Sequence to fold (349 residues):
Amino acid sequence: MGLPVYRIELKDSAMKKLESNIWSDSFVSGTMSMNGRRTPIRIRYRGGHTREYPKKSYEIRTAKVTYHFNAEHDDPSLMRNALSFHYFNVLGVPSPSTKHCVLYMNGEKEGVYLRIEAVKSAFFRKRGLHARSIIYAVNDSADFAMAGKNTKANRLLSGYALIKGNETDRVRLSDFIRSINRKKGTELNDYLQQRLDMDNYLRWLCGAVLTGNYDGFLQNYTIFEYGKRNMYGMIPWDYEGTWGRNCYGKAVKSDLVRIKGYNVLTGKVLAYRAYRQKYKRILERALESTFTVSRLMPVVKKMHRTIAQDIYDDRKYKWDTDMFDSEPGVIREYIEDRRRDIKNDMEQL
Fold:
């Protein structure tokens, strides 16, 4: 049985507008059909350098929900985002749901895509969470640093995009960044306990470190503030540069990401022995149970089998299909090597 098929139809005028400027974030209207059901949509291109690729990624909005249809053009497996979000959910970190599919645009087959649930208000409602604000980390200035930056809110937040909330929420995040940079000792520890969901943060850190997402600390995450708890939490985003390859599909060493991760906030958190010990316990439990070949490879193999035939038929797949066939082995080797790395580096905690 093949993958689900989505068919997008755009009028000529809408298609011309979309193609006239690949860097535009403006939406055009159209329809999307799946299993004979036709739904009005708005659609635009999404991504950074990938907008220049022949196989483009899209953001698609219906009246009720937003999805990102990712081409995963730089990932020879087309599985790394899906596998990463699966693993974060296993760790207990809220993460987008995913589904592989085949996309058609005005009757032309675009190929295999990964449909990813957008991290917006509906994402939190579905999980029984109330988010006061939702903020995307959109570039490498989202490192929680203050050194060398203008301390005005607009400069401190140059790496972030407010998705839900208002100016008050922007000020709250800039105050948070100032505070973690200026406070020290017991005062900082007390502040972190009040303003950061530490269990969520350490589990998110564990996931980023184990999957090897180098960019996941400086961008490629969503930070949100719980509605009533006045605490910040983290959600992963854009994890194709993982499991032994970088975001361009190049093979990288398993120890690319250090056990203590990166960014200013992580450094502040791990400066306290109590948090290092809690993080160490989370890592140890992961190595014992969830981050193992026996636990992960059945997921990898099932996903690989499910998409294989449609990958072979995808004329826009940029890699040799022999590489696709070898990807489960690449991921398995990464898991084995990463387990060794973490065990060897555990003494740093």
